[in-house]
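Structure tokens please, single chain.
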Amino acid sequence: MKNVILTDGGMGQELVRRSKSEPTPLWSARVLIDEPDLVRDLHAEFIRAGARVITINTYSATPERLAREGAEDLFKPLQKRGIELARQACDEAGEAAIAGCLSPLFGSYAPALTISYQETLDIYRRIVAEQADGVDLFLCETMASADEARAAVTAASESGKPVWVSWTLADHGAPRLRSGETIAAAANALDGMPIAARLLNCCRPEAIAAALPELIDLGGPVGAYANGFTSTEALKHGGTVDVLHARHDLGPDAYAEQAIGWVQAGADIVGGCCEVGPAHIAALRGRLERAGYQISGVQ
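Here you go.
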């Protein structure tokens, strides 16, 4: 019986739906202060649905995004609050590993919006310093280029905690990062680094299915968690997520069918990204259990 690690789904879109506030470029960060119960309760729902790993809700709380909105002084308080709310959810709903979040510094899907590698590394080190004592592992997620991932993984690995790296792919064509780089090139940029798992995320399920064999060929634990967007083209730098639309063919059962295919192909870790809520994770848990897989936590 194969063990499979089940992660949570997407926080941002679900919080926008539940929040009383209009979406802003900081989307899910502001809710940590204004409506913290929503964050804690959503984490708890994912755990009850079967998730054994949850990621703190600090995806948009990077120094650059906060500075752009005139809120850089919120950086440390938001990091602290994100960890606190995840811990509260675990106390309330059950045991789960807490993943620190190293997200794209400027915005998702924008590999060209870069600063120097050293500046990028320094900023990721700032984030790691705030999160390291409160998390069980680090998730470097939605990495759109090889250098972005290399900087995030370097900073995360200095914490001594396990590190997962997750690349986001172009939604159409041959498997490529959104930068146009191959998965092999992105992996080569991380040679010698202590990576606990390699994943793909925040792209169409079909893109993940096409790319997964290449990821598996790299060796070691692999995973995937897709988004449910029709397209990400409308989201521009500094924009808000209300311009994106959910697919109508990826309800909980349909998403679970996609994800079970990844596991059958060799994935060890599955979950969901944007537009994948607790109902999707519950459906995926049920599908995995019926297929004879054992849901496990991080070892």
